[in-house]
Amino acid sequence: MVKKSYKHTAVLLIMAMLISLCPVSSLASGYRPAEPPEFESVIAQFDGTSSDGVTGQFSLTKDTQGNECFSVGNSQWTRQLFFGVTDGKTADTKYVNDEGRCMISFDVYPKQTDRALILLINDSDSVSWYPFVLNGGGKMYFNEGRVYPTATYLPPNARPYEANTWYNIKMDINTHESYIDFYVNDEYWDRNYVTNSYWLNSLYNDTLTLDKVFFNYQPDWGLDENGRQLPADTSGEILIDNFTYGIPQKRDIELEFHHNEPGNIYDANSVDVGYDITNSTDAGGEYALDYEIRTDKNKLIKKATKSLELKANDTVSVTLLDDAPEYGFFTVEVKLYDASGNLMIRDADRFSVIPHQDGVNDRMGACVHNVGHGSTAYGATEGTLEVLHRLGIGYTRDDYSWSSFYDTTGENRTNSNYMQKNNKLYTESPIGRLVLVRTLPEAYNMKYDANDENVKSFLNRWGKYCYNLASDLPDDVIYYEIENEWWLHGTLGLSGVNYNVNISSDIQLYAEMYKIASQQIKAANPNAKIVAFNASHGNYAWLRDVLDALGDNPGQYFDIIALHDYMAYWGSPFPEQFMQSGDPSRGTGAGGIDEFLTILDEYDIADKPIWSSEFGTTSGYHKADISEKLNADFYVRHLCLTHSLWIRCLYTSCNLTDFRPVHMKAASVL
């Protein structure tokens, strides 16, 4: 590649490339415009001069053509090259346009293929994402998930790069729909859906801006000939030039899937699958829209061509499917041709159709973690509640962490608006709440001692937090869990059993926290119900230790017992296997329910209702590689078996973190 210089031209050169069609099963490789984007306006530009205002561990140097650029490497990796994108800009500068679009472009020149470069981007709310990586194995890739990039991690989108070669990387970012279109040397690469749903989420936070960009150099992420990680040294060097941030131009013709349904999940009674087609030019014309709709099994549902007239500077909405012949997952693929038969643009998207639901089922819920992950401020909760209502799910389970709403005293609110907005959303929805009360991290390594002033202070503050939280929530919020899977935080129990985990949190402290939480929550809301333990039903020794620590009559401190019974996680892909008898001598692990029920009898708590506050079989998770269809089949079997045999209320079923109505990737629950 001949490296471009943005110092001498206002726009990028265009290299027209035709994109090969993606398989039906791959939404990430959707049909995108063939031409790379251009900058409509440039907001920030860094070209390797001392006046750029760049900070960090780097040096100014010359490239092979004698042009000024940056050099990273020859030192430790942490934030070597830093661009303060907002530095020196006026308050009215638009960093994202009205459609939520922005663009980043830079040139990179690796002098070797056994060192890593990571691009990190922060927004003004201090949320980070590392979308692009050159790894130490000669591959570049974009980050498809929350996996931290290492020398051995290699996602399917990875492609090779060579040493001593310039590469131009363009990132066309859509902050409303949380995706990035990547281009390498002006050739379309792929689309990456950003799974960190809060990063640059300008749709729900219109003041959010791009803030900082870091290029982190990692000298020890190479591999030797045996695949072992190389030790750190200072021999590596990577050049960076022409980093540019701005707003992309609108394309003449744009296709956008109808995102008027939460999570692209359609009720069978109101299917309206279609596209909005925008003509941004001053000339109208005749067009033809070819489209196919297929199931996840590649069964053709519909194939047709629609003739369209696109007027100048106008948008036309086209319905492609208004009655689904079956339930399930579908992919729609579209191509738009002009009057001469030239392909103008193409796209693909995914949606699902589910049976119509009347009302919600109070015995079913979903783990959402919107509050726990901070997304209420950005609109994710609204979309999530819409999806749950559509699925007929009656409750959510979410983290209400101490640090999210109160200071360390447990008395002073730190985020009243946050709490008020959350309460308002639930008041307007038929969905109820199971509140997961979370403590401060200081508790995880604290040992209980009744005479220890630090312990007494913590428990006193914990009680105030529990009381204030229950007081701030509406009276109709009655279900409270105290901490989540505490068994993961303790290595040695009262019985001497090693739970085989890595944080040493005290069971006696946990018991004291339960007593205080139960008392304070019920003092604030006499109708409150305490949901206890939330551990795998294989944790027999741990459960006995907790009940012993609670003292005489442990059942006085809780009203409901909750289990977390994942199948694929524990290596048991079938519900029938999961319920078979286990080994009572084991401290942890999968096993049957018979020992668990025996424990309830022993401690005179067999009258307590049993809930499953997390359960399921997860696609591709841990030991099982399970399709969404098989996942759904397992859910049904699990529901039927647990309801009929032992669980009296199956409360939560899945983990949802972002079902904003426009989020294209979200059609994943059926």
Largest sheet: 8 strands, antiparallel
Q: How many strand units?
A: 29
- Determine the number of helices (DSSP H or I, runs of at least 4 residues): 9
Strand content: 25-35%
Shape: globular
Helix-strand makeup class: alpha+beta
Distance between the termini: 46 Å
The radius of gyration computed from the alpha-carbon positions, rounded to a whole number of angstroms, is 28 Å
What portion of residues is helical? 10-25%
Short structural summary:
The protein is α+β, with helices and mostly antiparallel strands. The protein has nine helices and 29 strands.
What does this structure look like?
- By secondary structure, this protein is of the alpha+beta class.
- Helices cover 16% and strands 31% of the residues.
- It is built from nine helices and 29 strands.
- The protein has helices at residues 380-391, 402-405, 416-427, 453-472, 507-524, 540-549, 575-578, 594-602, 628-645; strands at 39-46, 59-62, 68-73, 81-84, 101-110, 116-123, 128-134, 139-142, 159-160, 167-174, 179-184, 187-193, 210-218, 237-248, 253-257, 265-267, 273-279, 285-295, 300-310, 314-321, 328-338, 343-354, 361-367, 393-401, 432-438, 479-482, 529-535, 560-566, 610-616.
- Strand 10 and strand 11 (179-184) form a beta hairpin.
- Helix 4 packs parallel to helix 5 (507-524) and helix 5 packs across helix 6 (540-549).
- The two termini are 46 Å apart.
- The model is unreliable at 4-30, 578-591, 619-624 and 652-670 (pLDDT under 50).
Characteristic terms for this protein:
alpha+beta; about 675 residues; single chain
